[in-house]
TrEMBL record:
The keyword Hydrolase does not apply. GO terms for cellular component: adherens junction; catenin complex. The gene is CDH16. This is Cadherin-16. One of its GO terms (biological process) is cell-cell adhesion mediated by cadherin. It comes from the Eukaryota. Residues 1-20 form the signal peptide. SMART domains: CA.
Amino acid sequence: MDPSWLWLLFLSVPQVLLEAQPAELHVEVPENYGGNFPLYLAKLPLPREKTEGQFMLLADSGMVTEGPFAVDSESGFLLVTRALDREEQTEYRLQVTLETEDGHVLWGPQPVLVHVKDENDQVPHFSQTTYRAQLSQGTRPGVPFLFLEAFDGDEPGTANSDLRFHILSQTPTQPSPNMFQLEPQLGTLALSPIGSSSLDLALEWPYQLLVQVKDMGDQASGHQATATIDVSVVENTWVPLAPIHLAENLKVPYPHLISQVHWSGSNVHYYLESLTPGPFDINTEGKVYVTKELDREAQAEYLLQFGAQNTHGKDYAEPLKLQVVVIDENDNAPVCPPRGPPISIPELSPPGTEVTRLSAVDADAPGSPNSLVVYQLLSPESEEGVEGRAFELDPTSGVVTLGAAPFQAGQSILLSVLAADLAGEEGGLSSTCEVTVLIKDINDHAPEFTTSQIGPISLPEDAEPGTLVATLRATDADIEPNFRLMDFAIEAGNVERTFDLEWKPDSGHAQLWLRKNLSYEAATSYKLVVVVQSVMDLVGPDPGPGSSATVTVLVEKVVSPPKLDQESYEASVGVSTPAGSLLLTIHPSDPNSSPLRFSLVNDSEGWLCIKESSGEVYTARSLQGAQPGATYTVLVEVQNADEPGLSSSVTLVLRFLKAWPTPALPPAPVPVRHLCTPRQNHGVVISGARGVPDPASGQGPYSFALGSNPTVQRDWRLQALNGSHAYLTLALHWVEPQEHVVPIVVTHNDQMWKLLVRVVVCRCTVEGQCLRKVGRMKGMPTKLSAVGTLVGTLAVIGFLLILIFTHLALSRKKDLDQPADSVPMKSVV
Ligand SMILES: *[C@@H]1O[C@H](CO)[C@@H](O)[C@H](O)[C@H]1NC(C)=O
Ligand SMILES: *[C@@H]1O[C@H](CO)[C@@H](O)[C@H](O)[C@H]1NC(C)=O
Ligand SMILES: *[C@@H]1O[C@H](CO)[C@@H](O)[C@H](O)[C@H]1NC(C)=O
């Protein structure tokens, strides 16, 4: 529900009640009424029928009033009995009732408000009859310097009390008759524009103003009053202020008076406005204080502004400005720049190279000695024995340059520099600044071999490819790992790329490997020139001789110890074998091998001798003392003729046989070209001489040997007859009858050649004739062949007889029988 409804409801209740209680009656009475009294004011709203009763008039307080009001009981008019003064009482509140004599209320109570209507009967008056004011020269026009006050007792808000101020006169009237202006309604006195501009020209004596205050507003009528104002013009003390210099960190009691401003006019109120906020204050007398210590480094200068105001907050004049300059004290030490990463300077940088520029910052006043910083190098100090300093420092600029002293790559130097203010004078403040300088490596060292000559290194001819030959080590004096990387190369001597190198750039060594088969015949030695160089570009001097090394490789010829055709040799020999008989020949396994040299090691009996070059073993003397059936073992040493150090030995076992009946000198060997099988006492004489006359013939003996074919060796036996001839016989009892070609190697005077001897082996007649094959006898036998057949038949009979006898004879001495093959041929012959 709308609350206004409630309100209306609430109001309607007294309205209903007031139906019985009549509305208040408003009556106005003019003040100071000058007519006859009683003055009838208003007829009371009485009921129509005439009622006998008595009017009672109550004042607001409830007391029965004694005047000046009354009710005419005849007419029922409210009347006033005398003149009223509004200034005494403005309003009267009355209650009128009609009562019976016994006090019974017949009508009323009727409230009545009597208002006394103001009459302009009051004269305005000034608060003072004489005002005094000091007027400072320089006061701006329109800024009031005096506030007039006047009062009027008439009803406020009406024209009767509406006051206006006016200047009636001004003495003196120089330099202008209108020096001042008075605000008519407010009564504020100020300089007029012309007054302001000409006040400086004013006379020495004060001005006197006659001023008026008048009521009734701007109407011409009205009451008025006057007052005088004495205005003394005073010199303007509101003058610009010289800057104040104030030491920072000043130790004085605070607040500390630093200045004073003064407005010489009256009614002044000072204020401080800090254009640069700071600890300053001003009091009512215009004294300016600093309230605490100042710090130049926080604020070096302040600009303050002071104003002089009238009581209504208007500035009399332009505010004054005051500059406060804080005087520096050397309260700040130089501050080193923050320590950064080390400064890298390349190795070998020339003296004078700028390393860094130190700039310590001093917070004290710039341009003053307090902030004048000079530098001094504390460390490193120049070392003894070293020419010049490592670093030079310019004391004023702080520039650090390289000195004459040398550096090493990787060196880290801590520079310690004293930065002092007051230009280094005593009493100044200082700090120690530190800078680390790192000497950066450059690739100025070439890698060098630790050894320039390697070897000679012996490599056997049969060394396999993939053999490590040598390891070459090199060093690099640089520090930076990249600058130590190396490349190797074989520059010269690597014939047919027999060798190669393997390396890792960062390992500091290279391996020389054999890559191909060596051959002593092709090259007996190699001289390899290996060079090493830096992988990165080299700065500075060219590589020296240390960057190359020579590897000498010698190829060793591989010679194996002599090899023989048999692991051991054995021969049977009759104890009566004469001296000089050939027993056997020791052959190398490979006839083409290098020449051998034979010797007997422990022939303690002295029975044997051996031909040094051919390996033929002879009896040296008669085998006196040899027992049949016994054996005699001799060690034969075989040496390589070219490499005497290479030797081997072989055993030779002689088996002694019972003395073989010395056969008669063999019939002169029949120079047949056929031999019988089974074997007979025949041989083929072979001449060593060649068909072509040999100019050297006869000078030395010929020597003969069978060809190396094992079958030939097995089937045939060759004996030396004398210096120029040999005798070829069957070695076996039975050799296949056919034509044989026997290879015989003849050596003479260091010459050797091969003879191919054609020998027909056949079955023989008793006479040693070849038996012809039956198939060949075709047709009639010739006379000769008939005789031959007869002789042959007889011979066969004889042969059979011989066989029988021989068999008998042989079976008798069966225990002594020896294989015919093992009988030395000589003895058989
Ligand atoms: C090197 O010699 C070995 C053994 O004598 C042989 O087997 C091989 O084939 C040879 N290599 C070359 C490349 O001649
Ligand atoms: C010669 O030396 C061999 C081997 O040492 C030995 O068997 C043999 O009996 C020795 N011969 C003589 C005659 O001393
Ligand atoms: C060697 O013997 C052969 C055959 O018996 C003979 O013809 C030759 O004259 C002899 N030579 C010498 C130098 O005795």
